[in-house]
Prior knowledge:
This protein is an alpha+beta fold. Strand 6 (201-206) and strand 7 form a beta hairpin. It has helices spanning 7-23, 40-55, 74-86, 95-108, 111-123, 237-274, 278-281, 283-311, 320-341, 357-364, 375-386; strands at 128-131, 147-150, 154-161, 172-178, 189-195, 201-206, 215-226, 230-231.
Amino acid sequence: xxxxxxxxxxxxxxxxxxxxxANVPQDHGPLRxxxxxxxxxxxxxxxxxxxxxxxxxxxxxxxxxxxxxRGASLIERMIFDEEMASHKAPGLLNVLGLEIVGPTIIVYxxxxxxxxxxxxxxxxxxxxxxxxxxxxxxxDLGSLQTRAVDQGDHFLVNGQKVWTSLARYANxxxxxxxxxxxxxxxxxxxxxxxxxxxxxxxxxxxxTMTGESEFNxxxxxxxxxxxxxxxxxxNQGWKVIITSLMFERQGLGFYFTFAxxxxxxxxxxxxxxxxxxxGRTDRRLRQKMAQAYIDCEVLKLNNYRAxxxxxxxxxxxxxxxxxxxxxxxxxxxxxxxxVAMQGASGQLYDEAGAGNYWQYGxxxxxxxxxxxGTSEILRNIIAERVLQLPKGR
Length: 393
C-alpha cells in the first residue's frame, strides 16, 4: 500500500481543516445521535449541523457530481472522516441515508428516484431508516414475513419490523418486503422506498439500557406504497439489500476507524488528567493501553487494505465484514477498560451531566456485536467468502 497522499489530496485535507476549525460548534459537548436527555433542541441542532456541512460542500464527497456530491475518490472520503474525528465534530444525523440508502439508490434507483431523494439525503432534509429485521428474522433475514401485495398501481404492505434505528425521527424508510410468498425465501423479496408519514404506520420506541430509544418497532397495517417507489426489480430485493449492506460496512468502516482512534485519545487524555502517574507505574494498565493503541492501528491498516482494493476497481465485498467485526469487539474492550479504570465510581451513571461519557459508551457498546450483522454471522462471512473455507454443517 502507498501511504503517501497526492498534493491535491493534501490540499483537500487542509481546506477541510480550515473549514472545520471555523465551523465546528464549540458548545455541543459529547453529543452523539440523540441521548436519553436529548430534546427537540438537540434534534434541531443535529439537523442544522448537517445542513451546515452540506452547504459547505462536505456531504456526499464520493458521490457523483450530478447527484450533489464532489465526485471525489474514497481517499478524500476517508480524509473527511479522519478530520471530523480529529476535530471532535458532531456526527451527521442522517448517517443511514448518507452511508447506505443514498449509495444504493445511486446504483439501483430510477432517474426520478435519484432526483427526488438524493439531494434531501445530503442536506438532511430527509432522514432515513432501514426496515430489515423482524421479530423472527434477524440474522436469517431471508425468512422475513412482511408482505407487499400488488394492487395494480401500488403495493399494500402488512407486517412488523424491529430494531429499526432512528425510525421515530425518520420520514423515509428503505423497506425489505416479501412480494412472492411462493418463491424460495431469498428470491421473493423486494425493496421499497416508503414514506413514513403514510397512513397505517405505527412506531413504538424501544427503550434500551442506555435510557435512549434509538431502536424502534414499526408496524405496517394496509400501508399503500406507490409502484414508483420500488427500488430495483420486483422480487430482486435480496440483491439490493446485499448491496446496501456492503455500502454499510464499507462506508461505516472509515467512520469506525477514526471514531475508534478518537475514543482512544479521549481515554488517554482522561487517564493523564485523572491520574498522571498511573500510566508509568501500573504495568497492566500500560499493557492494556498499548493493546488498545495496537487495535486502533490494525483497524486503520485493514481499512487501508480494503480501500486499496476498491481503488483498483473491485466492488465493495465481504472484506467489509472484517472492519465491522474488528471495530465492534475493539470498542467493547476499550469501553470496558475505561469503566474499569474508574473503579467504584464507574458504576455511577449521571444522566444530568457529562459524567456519563464512558458509562454511556460501555452500555451502548453491548449492541455493537449485534447491530449491522452479529459477530457470529460476520465470522461466517469472513470464513466462507474471504478465506474460502468450507461451509459448516
